[in-house]
Fold:
Amino acid sequence: MNAFEIRSPGFSASRRRFGKQAGALVALFSLAPFACPAQTSAPVSFRANPRLTGWIRVDERGRVTVFTGKAELGQGILTALTQIAAEQLDVDFSSVTIVSADTSRSPNEGYTYGSQSVEQSGAALQAASAQARAVLVGAAARQLGVAADVLSVRGGVVHAPDGRSVPYADLVRGERSLLDREVTADAPVKRPADYRLIGHSIPRIDLPAKFTGGAAFVQDMRLPGMLFGRVVRPPRAGANLIAVDLEKARAMPGVVAVVRDGDFLALAAEREEQAIAARAVLANAARWNDAHADLPDVDALPAALRSWRSEDTVAAATGQDVPVPADVRWIEADYSRPYLSQASIGPSCALAWFTGAHMTVWSHTQGAYPLRADLATVLGMPVDSVDVVHVPGSGCYGHNGADDVALDVALLARAVAGRPVKLQWMRDDEFAWAPISPAMSMRIRAALSPQGRIADWQYEVWSNTHAARPGQPGGINLLAAWHLQKPFTPSPFLRIPQPYGNGDRNAVSVYALPRQRVVNHLLLDSPIRTSSLRTLGAFGNIFAIESFMDELASAANADPAAFRRAHLSDPRALAVLNAALAKANWRADEKLPPGRGRGLAYSRYKSIQAYAAVVVDVDVERESGAVRIERVTIAADLGRVINPDGARNQIEGGVLQALSWSLKERVSFDRREITTRGWADYPIFTFEDVPPVDIVLIDRPEMPSLGAGEFSVGPAAAALANAVAAATGGRVRDLPMTPQRVKAAFAAV
Structure:
């Protein structure tokens, strides 16, 4: 085990909104030694993409093109995947071009989510690249008249012991179909000791345009003859269009088309400012009925959630035959987190071009192929007549409005056939209509023995679905599809089993407990449209579990670190906990002055992925309730680290987003509609809020790599909550920890 430390003085230049804008992902798969079989079975991505040339191509100049179905969301995935392919092919990193998430030419790998991109596409590209290398070396052996096992490769050139050599370019020039064969996982892969690229911090290939103001995002795209579109939504969910005067908007300068289909209203104009002005006119000309969704009282939200209809399942039940001692003390607490917005910095945007009988859509979707299928269904077109090309968007943390705006613009492009259209949502569209992360209520009841050990653990979580993406069976999860004259219905709720989970992700405790019972209440009443945000339910569940662990430690009169150690049996968990404590200089007997606090939290993401332990230091002002975060220390075990700087980007981003969610963010609404419509209604972390973040990466080259995109979020929030409790002497159990709630915590002492 090796450890190296990285200190970040706040925001690094490669991130703006909390880290999914930065960092090469860490691999999720094991790299076997060279000359040993790389895989015991074919990567899952090979099932739908069986040809080697669908993954790897080498041209007559020696340039390598690799193809992935995963999307660059700002997490640096294209850099990491390029490293993996270049490593196995023994070519220079700069000689590789990567094509991602394009239904016209890349493999179908479903969605980009869940910190699984390198696990899936990385495993596929590792195996395919190793196979391509073996095929090329075999061709060189035939050409040079020597055995393949005496040949070596450097920079895409195959070398024989006698000094002769042949470049990959010559091999494919002489046999054009050399790589056109079934893809397999039979070729040997490199030993980690022989890596030249993996394990090194290679600069991200997606950053230059972002740094220089180039065309980095779909919002920046321009096509010849392009029109600009806008959409007019109902004033609130449930409202229907009674009447609209389309002619006023059609008469506006530059307006080319105005489209109405049921409750769907959109327009296209020659210039963007013309489209914005016409949108205002069209909105004023529309009359809607007074129907509305019956929203709960926002101030009574946790109790409201527990009163809704639910589908109840037992996510875990262990040790139920173990008796609970009679001398235990029962302790219980309720926690909650609010509805959260994606709050992407750039409003959702897409381009579409309908030419002949073909529709091409450029989108920052997380699932190009699932979106393609649903677009084809709504448009009434064959799937082969629709293509979706991924282009990064300015901010992506889950299922935002990317897919919805793709359908909006496709419907508009059909009305102006032959001309490309770009449609960007306005900020009020984004806050009011993009999918929102569900509010959650968590209840924990535990039995504490006189020896300070947990004897029983009972956990319940109430939450709407965190998974309602396009491509799910049984319906269409696209906003405009529900507003058409002939509407489509949403897909049924998705049931995601443990350990991945939905609202119950990370609801099962990772501690060694004699008894544990976890109940998931999947809420069936859904007055607000919800779907995926970074970590799904793990953010809320880890916040609750780790807050309660501190409450139990206090009840047992134990140091929070010692209490956790006593309930951990996984050596890697203990190692990461001890690494964070050592780096933060944690002392069990330390007495801090009033208003200052330190908090600790530990978790393992999904119980099967990366390990994290976080220490947060805060200074809390009694009079104002303001929380100043002085320092965050995090130790992370990601298994084998592919790109250290990329891992740091992801870890920092998760930490900062968690802190922003925990202190500031909450979607507001009254009983009729969402009232959060702009940044004034939805504060997020600013640069002055960002604390120093110290990171200790525990590198385990002998272990499989684990995803880095989401695991730091939950424990960062919980460590902050525990630090605030230590500083105030009271406990804030409902997020966000607003100044009013923090002042109440002081007053409760």
Q: What stands out?
A: Residues 399 and 440 are 18 Å apart (CA to CA). The first strand starts at residue 2 and ends at 8. Residues 117-144 form the longest helix (28 residues). The two ends are 44 Å apart (CA to CA).
